[in-house]
Amino acid sequence: MPVHGGNSIINGGDFCAPGTKLQREAGVQDSPELMLNDMLRKCSYLNHPELAKMVAYNAKDALEWTESYIGARYTKLNYQGGHSVKRANGTISASGSELVNKLLVKAKELGVKLQLRTKLVRFMSNKEGRIVGIEVRKGLQIPR
Question: What's the chain's Rg over C-alpha atoms?
């Protein structure tokens, strides 16, 4: 994209995670197991089960990381299609810009070199599975 954030900056800003503070405050009973079951059911069990499990069991920690590390703020609990309980934690701006803009600030603080019109093709890993590089395509143009 010619700007940072792509579709993520203009989305509705909902972060689905089970067992969050907003859920507790609203009296919503949820769990990683329920989120996983919702994800599998909604996708007709065509998901990659281990990856879906990784999302369901780590979503709360990821959401809390965005709060503590970049200062993201979530103020409203929403439903998303396919979920059996309210688990979409909505950002204060009701947009993905709350996360993307704060991630950009943090990346710049850390000295990360950001590039536009660059597509991540694949991660490259060593024998131990540690990511050691990436392959990208640069100078991409948006089709008209």
Answer: 17
Q: What is the value of pTM for the model shown? A: 0.83
State which residues form the domain around 35: 8-111
Instruction: Determine, yes or no, domain membership for 126.
Output: no
77, 88 Cβ separation under 8 angstroms = yes
Other Cβ atoms within 10 Å of 138 Cβ, number: 9
What is the number of structural domains in the chain? 1
C-alpha 118: how far from chain center: 20
- Distance (Å, whole) CA 65 – CA 45: 29
* Secondary structure class of 63 (helix, strand, coil): helix
What is the CATH number for 71?
3.50.50.60
Residue type, 70: I
| CA separation for the pair 118, 139 (Å, rounded) | 6
pLDDT tens sequence across 50-101? 999 999 999 999 999 999 999 999 999 999 989 999 999 999 999 999 999 9
Q: Hey, what amino acid is at 72? A: A
